Amino acid sequence: MSERKVTIMGGGNTAFSVAARLSHIGNEICILEHPEFAESVDQISKTGHITLEGVMENGPAAVSLVTLDPSEALAFSDLLLLIVPAYAHRPFAEFTGPYLTSDHTVVVMPGTLGSLEFSALAAEFGVSDITVAEVDTAPYVCRKTSEG
User: Fold this and answer.
1) What are the start-end ranges of the E strands in 10-143?
2) What whole-number distance in Å separates Cα of residue 148 and Cα of residue 49?
3) Ramachandran sector of residue 108 (left: φ over 0; alpha: ψ -120 to 50; beta: rest)
4) Which residue, 37, 116, 124, 130, has fewest beta-carbon neighbours within 10 Å?
5) Does the pLDDT value for residue 147 go beyond 70?
6) pLDDT in tens, 33-51
7) Signal peptide span per the entry (predicted)?
8) How far is CA 20 from the centre of its chain?
């Protein structure tokens, strides 16, 4: 039984490690990638898991949904973790904006004040009462050794 559903927006090193860790502790995971970077999630789409190798834990981490469709990903969960470099905050906000609701909580990681930009763009899509937070840095030092 999962603790909660979480949508991870992004397909890079940190996005994969956060997705794997959250899966390992019992959460149900969706990964949303921007279509421009679709190849970064191809392998996970095929296997349905991320293989985690690390100090804390190892092994496959289940991913319930991998998608390039923001409407599908935002319907999956009300908790959205935007885990992309700062230059991708705006493209992701524009990509997901039409599907955001006041029920969503967005956490920008790493933030670099990206929460301010994300909030402003959400308001442009008519969602001015959304909760947007950020963290200063990524929670893990990590790297991808493969695409899955």
Assistant:
1) 28-32, 49-53, 58-62, 65-67, 79-82, 105-108, 131-134
2) 7
3) beta
4) 124
5) no
6) 999 999 999 999 999 999 8
7) none
8) 11
Residue 3 near residue 85 (C-beta atoms within 8 A):
no
Q: Residue 50: what residue type?
A: I
Give Cα 34 to chain centroid, integer Å: 11
For the whole prediction, is pTM greater than 0.85? Answer: yes
Tokens of 118: 């994300």
21-37: pLDDT as tens digits:
999 999 999 999 999 99
CA-based nearest residue to 62, from 108, 113, 1, 128? 1
If residue 16 lies in a helix (H) or strand (E), which one and from where to where? helix 13-24
CA distance 142 to 148: 14
Q: Tell me the C-alpha distance between 100 and 84, whole Å.
A: 18
